RNA sequence: GGGCGUAUAGCUCAGUGGUAGAGCACUGUAUUGACAUUGCAGGGGUCGGAAGUUCAACUCUUCCUACGCCCA
């Protein structure tokens, strides 16, 4: 097959991808091979490929292709995540556009709509991953809502429940009033926004006064609306200003609620007045203070509904005018916050803030401006409300124990290691994980509630479901069994899906005509956090809980690659669930990479409009170039700044390889037939064999350490700077006009060059799969595709003399070129040279490689012996231990002063170096205390530079 | 407030206790057979600052400064 003169990535990418996928190239049958397994961080089913995915998946593909080439049974599990909140939002938004809404449907109806959406437009990203060249096992594509996955989720939930590691609890959650669901701590983002700090007077009750005579306590808050549900005022136990009033009461303005003054260390005497209002139902700190003050969670007052509008508190003291107001100003309409402040001000309870203008005048404001750390929901984008509800919690602290130990003792290696500290810091301070979500799309919680049985009578507690009887099991059949055991045969058991809201009271229950001998069980309407299911990814994707062969062979996985941003969300939770369900760490190694940033270092975001579309880059430069860029920039522990020039550079690299292959083809260099290096006698051929080995060793070492940058640079440098720049130039004389194409040198060189090019294609394949596969086949008929070829075997014997000889020719060539350039001699000029006292290497190389010396160094003839008298330039050649001086007469070619200047410059450099080394060597401390190798090296370097200086001085003398 | 990370050539980044590297950019130069998406040659860095350890520090330690991230 002949190659076009220009390389066009687009033309080959789709073709090869299709071929690989259809021919099973991504997962060849290798039943007896050692397993190598990676699971892909499942992207959201709603997602589309962004630059971060491109990085993450490129790295994984490099590893998986590398291991596949090394003969392993390489499995890359791929799939998508059902992304509860995100997906439900997408479908609801689409409904909105049609003036439709979720609640127009039954739960089942809506979920079916989501499935429809998923079938039609979900998984865009999986097609985009193909464009990148990712070699995942698509035949086993997974989805976290697959039937077998659901089985795994249910089993895990039930097991955890039975082990007491999942429980229902009433406490404050992070409530998203836009999405109307609880979310976990990790889904909350703290942002600092400008806000206000208001100061209020809370009048003391019963005529009590402070020691200074005041009849009120001053409190301050950034959230005045919560005062409607205040239940205490706290002061520090050691704060003498308030010691006399601890245990006394204040009467809250507006509600008139009588609340105690309590002593609690949470109150900071240094902050404001030292007294703080306590709203246990709406603030995490206050919740704790409230509990310490003896208020049960169930008794804490709540003044906001699910949409964060004011509702009546249990004591009924909130005036009607406030009911229904939103928590704060929204869409230009004042809310409860503004109303409370206005009312307090009107009633004289507001203490104004006095600010000074630049001119020193005092001005009164209602509040002090302040920067406020405020929690936002990462999906909904609105301020999170701490809200008192019943939710399911996972005992994360218990589950974290084994993962902590795994990382501590090296069972799991985190790369780069610097992340370990962050990991420990989080895991050791982990909070209970709220896993229930008030959504319809997701894994339904396998818990059913029924009336509790007290002394033979059934009773429902409508205000607090957690006190009702709960049955947790994987199926209704099991629940029925449990229920029968609990209620006895006297009751008929029925499952009913009617929403809880339909049965608010016992009276409703009776009114529905439910006979007294019937028990109705209702499943918890909530679903599980999506991360609860993705935590099972390393084994549920392999068939767990069934004991499949696949699971046996591929769990534990070998490596996980993820962005550090999901270390806690996903990686840590996989560790927990791996240990809990499988009794093992899910993988021995975790590689964390950084973010891809915009060229200016800013975080890419849609709102900033600075996102770079990886597909656009692929269109422009080819997938291979983008991949290579990702790999070359991926040094451990640093974010990657986008640099399109560099992507372009790697496109150029691909073109270079393309053209090198064209050159090979034009000289009859084709596919090699052996994995082992061919037998070679010519120095250049031995040299390139040695260089292939060195490159392979370097790449293997880099890959073992997951140094993607080092591996990419090694193959890049070898291909361009060694193979193209030197080897192909060195062998050109063999194929030159007049040379015998059937003679040994040409035959051997064709074999070696073909072999070396093949090794390049194999070693480059993990990084640039498309162009390498194309060239692999262009080079000749092959028994197999490159994707399933064999990684180079770096063992081959090459003679040191041969490689030294080529190093010597290269050094000579470089030095001659450099000298010519400095002296203004045309680079093409062929010059005669004399070698007065050649080394052994020089003697043999001048004889055997005269063609290369003529062609590259452009020296001819090269005469062994003393140069004739007269001006000359001098260059040296080094290779291994050999060091030779070439004298090149300049008569009539160049002005002598230029050569003098050049030599003087070189002499000064050598003398400076020699002097510095001499100084070091004359330091007794250095000679005695430094490592012997270092001393030896210094001696060698000194000898070299001293000799060089001598040679240069002699050359200068000759010039006169 | 706690923790972590980064600071090396104009730019983006590697790097090692023993005379500083790559890519891009820049300068000079080369053009009829692999390749101008190129070749050849070259300029450019007191390795953020200060102190310490060491025969020797860009590298190790401490402190400082700047920037970034995470947690509270």
The biggest sheet, with number of strands, parallel, antiparallel or mixed sense and barrel status, is:
4 strands, antiparallel
- The N- to C-terminal Cα distance equals 61 Å
Shape category: elongated
Radius of gyration: 39 Å
Which structural class do the helices and strands define?
A: alpha/beta
Domain Methionyl/Valyl/Leucyl/Isoleucyl-tRNA synthetase anticodon-binding: 685-832
Domain Aminoacyl-tRNA synthetase class Ia: 16-643
Subunit structure: Monomer.
Domain Valyl-tRNA synthetase tRNA-binding arm: 895-960
Explain what this protein looks like in three dimensions.
By secondary structure, the protein is α/β, with parallel strands linked by helices. The protein is built from 29 helices and 35 strands. Strand 28, helix 16 (567-582) and strand 29 form a beta-alpha-beta unit. Helix 9 packs across helix 16. The mean pLDDT is 88. It binds one RNA strand of 72 nucleotides through helix 10, strand 31, helix 19, helix 21 and helix 24.
């Amino acid at each position: 097959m002949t190659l076009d003169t220009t390389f066009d990535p687009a033309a080959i990418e789709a073709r090869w991808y299709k071929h690989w996928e259809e021919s099973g190239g991504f997962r060849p049958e290798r039943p007896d091979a050692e397993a190598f397994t990676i699971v892909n961080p499942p992207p959201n089913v709603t997602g589309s490929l962004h630059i971060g995915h491109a990085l993450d998946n490129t790295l994984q593909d490099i590893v998986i292709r590398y291991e596949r080439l090394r003969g392993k049974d390489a499995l890359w599990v791929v799939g998508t995540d059902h992304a509860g909140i995100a997906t439900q939002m997408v479908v609801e938004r689409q409904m909105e556009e049609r003036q439709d809404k979720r609640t127009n449907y039954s739960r089942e109806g809506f979920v079916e709509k989501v499935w429809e959406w998923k079938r039609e437009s979900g998984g865009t990203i999986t097609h985009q991953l193909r464009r990148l060249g990712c070699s995942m096992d698509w035949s086993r594509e997974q989805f976290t809502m697959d039937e077998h996955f659901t089985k795994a989720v249910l089993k895990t939930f039930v097991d955890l429940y039975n082990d007491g590691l999942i429980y229902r609890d009433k406490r404050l959650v992070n409530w998203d009033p836009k999405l109307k669901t609880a979310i976990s701590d990790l889904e909350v983002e703290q942002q600092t926004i400008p806000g206000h700090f208001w100061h209020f007077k809370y009048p003391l009750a019963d005529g009590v006064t402070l020691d200074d005579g005041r009849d009120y306590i001053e409190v301050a808050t950034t959230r005045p609306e919560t005062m409607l549900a205040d239940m205490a005022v706290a002061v520090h136990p050691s704060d003498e200003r308030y010691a006399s009033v601890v245990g006394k009461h204040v009467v809250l303005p507006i509600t008139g609620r009588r609340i105690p003054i309590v002593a609690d260390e949470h109150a900071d005497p240094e902050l404001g007045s030292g007294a703080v209002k306590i709203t246990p139902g709406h603030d995490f700190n206050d919740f704790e203070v409230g509990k310490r003050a003896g208020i049960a969670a169930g008794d804490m007052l709540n003044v906001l509904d699910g949409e964060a509008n004011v509702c009546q508190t249990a004591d009924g003291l909130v005036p009607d005018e406030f009911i229904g107001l939103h928590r704060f100003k929204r869409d230009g309409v004042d809310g409860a916050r503004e109303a409370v402040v206005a009312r307090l001000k009107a009633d004289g309870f507001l203490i104004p803030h006095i600010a000074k203008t630049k001119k020193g005048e005092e001005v009164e404001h209602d509040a002090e401006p302040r920067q406020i750390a405020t929690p936002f929901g990462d999906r909904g984008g609105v301020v999170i409300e701490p809200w008192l509800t019943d939710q399911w919690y996972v005992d994360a602290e218990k589950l974290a124990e084994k993962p902590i130990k795994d990382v501590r003792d090296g069972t799991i290696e985190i790369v780069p290691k610097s992340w370990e500290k962050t990991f420990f810091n989080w895991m050791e301070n982990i909070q209970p994980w709220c896993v229930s979500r008030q959504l319809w799309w997701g894994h339904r919680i396998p818990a059913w509630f029924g009336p509790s049985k007290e002394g033979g009578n059934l009773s429902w507690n409508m205000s607090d479901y957690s006190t009702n009887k709960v049955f947790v099991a994987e199926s209704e059949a099991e629940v029925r069994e449990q229920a029968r055991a609990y209620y006895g045969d006297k009751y008929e058991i029925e499952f009913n899906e009617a929403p809880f809201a339909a049965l608010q009271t016992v009276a409703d229950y009776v009114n529905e005509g439910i006979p007294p001998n019937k028990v109705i069980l209702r499943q918890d309407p909530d679903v599980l956090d999506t991360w609860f299911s993705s935590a099972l990814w390393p084994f549920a994707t392999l068939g767990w809980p069934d004991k499949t062969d696949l699971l046996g062979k591929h769990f534990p996985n070998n490596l996980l690659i993820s962005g550090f941003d999901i270390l806690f969300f996903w990686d840590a939770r996989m560790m927990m669930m791996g240990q809990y369900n499988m009794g093992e760490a899910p993988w021995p190694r975790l590689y964390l990479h950084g973010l891809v940033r915009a060229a200016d270092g800013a975080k890419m975001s849609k709102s900033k409009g600075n996102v770079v579309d990886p597909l656009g880059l692929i269109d422009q430069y080819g997938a291979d170039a983008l991949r290579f860029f990702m790999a070359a920039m991926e040094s451990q522990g640093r974010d990657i700044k986008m640099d399109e020039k560099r992507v372009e550079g790697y496109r150029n690299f691909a073109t270079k390889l393309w053209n090198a292959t064209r050159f090979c083809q034009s000289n009859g260099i084709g596919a090699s037939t052996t994995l082992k290096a061919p037998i070679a006698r010519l120095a250049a051929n031995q040299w390139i064999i040695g260089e292939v080995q060195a490159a392979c060793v370097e790449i293997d070492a880099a890959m073992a350490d997951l140094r993607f940058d080092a591996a990419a640079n090694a193959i890049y440098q070898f291909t361009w700077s060694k193979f193209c720049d030197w080897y192909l130039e060195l062998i050109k004389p063999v194929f030159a006009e007049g040379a015998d194409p059937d003679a040994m040198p040409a035959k051997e060189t064709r074999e070696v060059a073909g072999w070396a090019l093949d090794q390049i294609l194999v070693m480059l394949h993990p990084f640039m799969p498309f162009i390498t596969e194309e060239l692999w086949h262009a080079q000749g008929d092959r028994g197999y595709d490159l994707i399933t070829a064999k990684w180079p075997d770096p063992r081959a014997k090459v003679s040191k003399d041969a490689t030294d000889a080529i190093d010597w020719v290269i050094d000579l060539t470089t030095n001659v070129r450099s000298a010519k350039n400095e002296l203004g001699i045309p680079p093409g000029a062929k010059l005669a040279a004399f070698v007065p006292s050649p080394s052994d290497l020089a003697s043999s190389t001048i004889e055997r490689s005269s063609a290369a010396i003529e062609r590259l160094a452009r020296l001819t003839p090269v005469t062994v012996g003393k140069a004739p008298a007269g001006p000359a330039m001098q260059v040296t050649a080094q290779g291994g231990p050999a060091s030779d001086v070439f004298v090149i007469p300049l008569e009539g070619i160049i002005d002598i002063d230029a050569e003098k200047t050049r030599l003087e410059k070189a002499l000064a450099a050598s003398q400076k170096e020699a002097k510095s080394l001499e100084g070091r060597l004359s330091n007794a401390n250095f000679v005695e205390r430094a490592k012997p190798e270092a001393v030896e090296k210094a001696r060698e370097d000194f000898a070299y530079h001293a000799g060089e200086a001598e040679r240069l001085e002699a050359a200068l003398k000759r010039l006169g």
